[in-house]
Design a protein that fits this description.
This protein is of the alpha+beta class and 253 residues long. It is built from nine helices and five strands; from the N terminus they run αααααββαβββααα. A five-stranded antiparallel β-sheet has the order 4-3-2-1-5, covered by helices on one side.
Length: 253
C-alpha cells in the first residue's frame, strides 16, 4: 500500500523534531538562566558599578556611562559575571561556621514573616532536592510487587529497612523508592522483605529511561518478542462470564 504524503511527512517530521528538540530545550534553559540572573541581579549590579565609577571619576556622569554600557554589549555582561562570582562567595560564606549560624538566623526570621512562611519552606524543599550536595544513593534496581500482589513495579533500592519494623516483623527488609512516570523525581517509598523483590540487571539510567518513557524504552536484553505483548489476555481468552446455558439479560427498552 503506497504511503501518503502526509503520513510520510508526519513520520519524518516527528523524527526530526525528536533529534532537534533536546538541543533547542537545552539552549532555551541556558538562555532563561542567563536572563534570570541578568534581570534580577546583573542589572542592579551594573547600576552599582556605574555609580561607583561616577564617584571615582567625577568627570563622568551616569547618563554618559549608561550610554556607553548600552552601546557595548559585552559591558552588560559585567553584572552577570559579578553576580555569578557573588553567588559563589555566598556559598563559601554559608559553608563556614559563622555563615551557617547567620543563615539559620535569617531563615528563622523568614519563617516568622507573614505569607513568606507559607511559600519559603516549599521553595526550599525543591531547591534543596536539586542543588543539595547530599544525593540519594540508589544501590541497585529491583522489581517489587506494588501497589498490590501480581502488579510489578520498577524500584530503586535506597537502603535497608528501619530497625523497629525489621525487629517487629523479624524480617530482613529493604527500603525502595518506586518512581512515578513520566516524572521520576516523585514517587513512593515502600519497605518490603528482601526475599520479595527481584534484582534486575539494569543500571540506574536505564531504569529511569524506562520510567520516563512509560515503558517504551526497554533496556537492551529485556525486550520480549512483540508477538507476546500483543497476545490476548487470559480474561479475553475466557470470554463472557455467563455459562453456556445462561443468556445475557437484554436491556430494557
Amino acid at each position: 500500500m503506497p504511503v501518503s504524503f502526509w503520513s510520510d511527512f508526519r513520520r519524518f517530521f516527528l523524527r526530526g523534531l525528536a533529534a532537534v528538540l533536546p538541543t533547542l530545550l537545552t539552549v532555551m534553559i541556558i538562555v532563561y538562566l542567563f536572563r534570570f540572573v541578568h534581570n534580577y541581579l546583573g542589572v542592579y549590579i551594573n547600576a552599582g558599578v556605574i555609580y561607583l565609577l561616577v564617584l571615582v571619576h567625577g568627570e563622568w556622569t551616569d547618563t554618559e556611562l549608561w550610554t556607553v554600557w548600552r552601546e557595548h554589549m559585552y559591558l552588560q555582561g559585567v553584572g552577570f559575571v559579578l553576580a555569578i562570582v557573588g553567588i559563589y562567595f555566598i556559598g563559601r560564606f554559608v559553608a563556614s561556621f559563622i555563615g551557617r549560624f547567620v543563615w539559620r538566623l535569617a531563615e528563622k526570621a523568614l519563617m516568622r514573616a507573614p505569607l513568606v512562611k507559607q511559600i519559603y519552606p516549599n521553595v526550599k524543599q525543591v531547591t534543596d532536592f536539586f542543588l543539595s550536595d547530599r544525593k540519594v544513593d540508589f544501590s541497585r534496581v529491583v522489581a517489587v510487587e506494588y501497589p498490590r500482589k501480581g502488579v510489578w513495579s520498577l524500584g530503586l533500592v535506597t537502603g535497608p529497612g528501619m530497625r523497629t519494623v525489621s525487629e517487629a516483623t523479624n524480617s530482613d527488609l529493604l527500603t525502595i523508592f518506586v518512581p512515578s512516570s513520566p516524572t521520576p523525581v516523585t514517587g513512593y517509598t515502600v519497605t518490603v522483605r528482601r526475599d520479595e523483590v527481584i534484582d534486575l540487571p539494569l543500571t540506574i539510567d536505564e531504569a529511569l529511561r524506562f520510567t520516563v518513557s512509560g515503558g517504551v524504552v526497554v533496556p537492551p536484553g529485556e525486550c520480549l518478542p512483540e508477538s507476546r505483548s500483543k497476545a490476548p489476555t487470559r480474561a479475553a481468552l475466557a470470554g463472557p462470564t455467563h455459562g453456556p446455558s445462561e443468556k445475557p439479560q437484554s436491556e430494557a427498552p
